[in-house]
């Protein structure tokens, strides 16, 4: 907790007059927190720490967001056999470590229980309106009018923490496939529907790697279509040290380390490793089980899709093959349907939201986004810092830079990403430790 306090102190300033003026000089503000997952919980804790009144809106009947297993195919959640890709030390909030008997890489039910214990420890649950999704937000007389499915209220500020894993992203492909077409959001485990089937998985992130490894022992054939060479990593070094510890301490991009170690440590495999200089092209994927199955010949790699023709999939290199099921593991679109149009500017060069410190739009210092990043590390401490920073701004502990200064900081970050050729990824991705310090 002392480390977090030092981090926040370095991030803040001493002159609070400008922002106090924007909020009418009142420290006693009331905020709405949207979402009761990892980021929303961090926001609630930060509000409690500063005595800020808040209401919390959650569309589900539970806390935990995607870490609560949900069989509903239209709700994003962990799948049955998911283990965390980051260690319990990295996944914990600063004031609440995991218990000693929890393994380094916790099972999803252990994460879910941890989050529930944290919520109860800090009396957050009483603030949550469950099964009450926010439908609209609009700014009236410098305050936010919020409407949910069962409630209306007015707030001085809003902390949006409902994540970015709900609106499926499925690329358009010419033609029509005759079999079932799923998105990985619907995948909850190696169900009977995959038994003996020819399955094509499109994409290769952490989820796709897990699905491929799961189905290699169930489906008659598993193949994976990728657009470019992936970065694949093991969770541990040969010495038993989690790779993430080396990644977050290194001042070089995480992918440069992943490129080196994946080339050295993986068994012989048909999966090529990225070439030097291409380190920022793709996000690293932890894929121990997946690589093992590829090496055994149980998973075949394919190139990008070209078109569908009934059960036949044509690839852009001229190859084709027949399949029974296609699973798109192609991520999600960032979507905030309750926000008014124009609430966030989008940079057309990268297709990403322009947010100062990845948190606040320069045009509105009363709207904050918690957890709208892709940390190289873990989300809980990252959201914790973002939340503490946001609440400190709202209570007048420091003043935000001018609109022009915030825009300039965003431009500089975007240009750095464009120079590396990574575009959107460089803007949304951040190294947890470097970001916090």
Short description:
With 437 residues, this protein is an alpha/beta fold. The protein has 13 helices and 24 strands.
Task: Tell me the layout of helices and strands.
Elements: H1 2-11, H2 17-22, E1 30-34, H3 38-49, E2 53-57, H4 88-91, H5 108-121, E3 128-129, E4 134-140, E5 143-148, E6 152-155, E7 157-160, E8 167-168, E9 181-183, E10 198-202, H6 206-215, E11 221-225, E12 232-233, H7 243-249, H8 254-265, E13 285-286, H9 288-295, E14 299-302, E15 305-309, E16 312-315, E17 320-322, E18 325-328, E19 332-333, E20 346-347, E21 352-353, E22 367-369, E23 374-376, H10 379-394, H11 403-420, H12 424-428, E24 429-431, H13 432-436
Parallel strand pairs: 1-2, 1-7, 2-3, 7-22, 9-18, 10-11, 10-18, 11-14, 12-13, 23-24
Antiparallel strand pairs: 4-5, 5-6, 8-19, 15-16, 16-17, 20-21
Question: If you had to describe this structure to a student in words, what would you say it looks like?
Answer:
This protein has 13 helices and 24 strands. By secondary structure, it is an alpha/beta fold. The chain folds into two domains: 2-167 and 333-436, FAD/NAD(P)-binding domain (3-Layer(bba) Sandwich); 170-330, FAD/NAD(P)-binding domain (3-Layer(bba) Sandwich). The strands form eight sheets. The protein has a five-stranded parallel beta sheet, with helices on one face. Strand 10 (198-202), helix 6 (206-215) and strand 11 form a beta-alpha-beta unit. The two termini are 14 Å apart. The model is unreliable at 1-26 and 251-268 (pLDDT under 50).
């Amino acid at each position: 907790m002392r480390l977090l306090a030092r981090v926040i102190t370095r991030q803040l300033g001493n002159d609070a007059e400008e922002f106090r003026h924007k909020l009418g000089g009142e420290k006693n503000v009331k905020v709405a927190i949207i979402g009761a997952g990892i980021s929303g919980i961090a926001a609630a804790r930060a509000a409690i720490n500063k005595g800020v009144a808040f209401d919390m809106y959650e569309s589900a009947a539970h806390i935990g967001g995607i870490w609560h297993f949900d069989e509903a195919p239209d709700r994003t959640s962990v799948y049955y056999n998911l283990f965390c890709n980051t260690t319990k030390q990295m996944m914990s909030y600063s004031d609440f470590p995991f218990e000693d008997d929890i393994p380094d890489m916790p099972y999803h039910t252990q994460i879910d229980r941890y989050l529930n214990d944290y919520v109860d420890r800090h009396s957050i649950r009483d603030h949550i309106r469950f099964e009450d999704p926010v439908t609209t937000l609009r700014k009236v007389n410098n305050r936010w009018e919020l409407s949910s499915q069962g409630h209306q209220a007015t707030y001085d500020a809003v902390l949006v923490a409902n994540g970015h894993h709900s609106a499926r992203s499925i690329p358009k492909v010419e033609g029509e496939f005759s079999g079932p077409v799923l998105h990985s959001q619907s995948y909850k485990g190696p169900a009977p529907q995959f038994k003996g089937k020819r399955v094509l998985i499109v994409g290769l992130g952490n989820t796709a790697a897990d699905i491929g490894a799961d189905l290699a022992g169930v489906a008659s054939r598993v193949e994976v279509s990728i657009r470019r060479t992936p970065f694949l990593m093991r969770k541990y070094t040969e010495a038993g040290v989690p790779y993430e510890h080396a990644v977050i301490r290194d001042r070089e991009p995480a992918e440069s380390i992943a490129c080196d170690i994946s080339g050295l440590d993986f068994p012989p495999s048909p999966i090529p490793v990225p070439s030097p200089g291409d380190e920022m092209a793709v996000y690293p994927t932890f894929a121990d089980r997946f690589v093992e199955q590829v090496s055994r010949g149980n998973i075949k790699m394919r190139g990008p899709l070209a078109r569908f023709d009934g059960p036949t999939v044509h690839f852009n290199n001229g190859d084709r093959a027949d399949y029974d099921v296609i699973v798109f593991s192609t991520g999600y679109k960032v979507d905030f349907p309750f926000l008014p149009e124009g609430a966030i500017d989008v940079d057309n060069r990268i297709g990403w939201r322009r947010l100062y410190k990845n948190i606040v739009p320069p045009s509105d210092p009363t709207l904050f986004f918690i957890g709208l990043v892709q940390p190289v590390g873990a989300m809980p401490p990252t959201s914790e810092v973002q939340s503490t920073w946001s609440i400190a701004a709202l209570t007048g502990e420091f003043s935000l830079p001018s609109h022009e200064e915030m825009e300039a900081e965003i431009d500089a970050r975007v240009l750095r990403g464009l120079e590396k050729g990574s575009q959107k990824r460089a803007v949304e991705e951040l190294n947890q430790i470097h970001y916090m310090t």
